[in-house]
Amino acid sequence: MSDDLRPGECRVYWARPADERPWHQRLLSAGERERRESLRRDEDKARQTVAAALLRVVAGRHLGEKPAAVRIDRSCTTCAVPHGRPTLPAGLEVSVSHSADRIAVAVGLAGPLGVDVEHCQDQRDILGVARLALCEAEIAASAPLDQHGFYTYWTRKESVLKATGDGLRTAMTKIEVSLPAELPRLHRYDGRPEVVASARMFTLAPGDGYQGALTVLGPALEITEHDAAALLADDTHAA
Questions:
Q1: Helix, strand or coil for residue 183?
Q2: Which domains, from first to last, does the chain contain?
Q3: pTM
Q4: Of 117, 99, 102, which is closest to residue 212 (Cα–Cα)?
Q5: Which site from 5, 23, 89, 175 is most exposed, i.e. has the minimal number of CB atoms within 10 Å?
């Protein structure tokens, strides 16, 4: 590793769609370019491009490779579409999330990890939406449930599902996490006691109007967050 990422360390890099630069598109794979062109809105294209470019820039720094040379496997375990959890060589674990004006790339050596960030949009029927993601015990313990509480639950749970690779194929109601006001912790994952035993959860700081969470399935010792704007502006990574 060229950027002294230590065992047990995880780093979360934050970016915005406005960080997009023309050279970022040169880092995209054929599949990522196809995905970009399928998007209609410019902001969606920028978000997807920055996320893909940042992943390669960050991974390249830690692998000692040029970003364009980083090979990322996005194979899905259930279909032929390359939209699965990104995997890299050399034991480097990564996860990507984006919502509205926030993009997160997490990287580490502590074990499989999952990052999630969500824009806290107003939900008119918050209890109705919550019943799709929260178990009855969580709803009862959090009554009355507000926007902050809902998105805290959601990001914690989705970060777990991304760390395991199960994704949203698994109902969030099968997972129980700590209350929003408590330190993040995984209490239950139906049929997956080994995940409960190994999961370490962390609350992230994506800024006002957003909630973020990180789950690491291993002995995570140090979590740091970094602004990636300077990395994305450095066109020497385009070489």
A1: coil
A2: 9-232 (3.90.470.20)
A3: 0.93
A4: 117
A5: 89
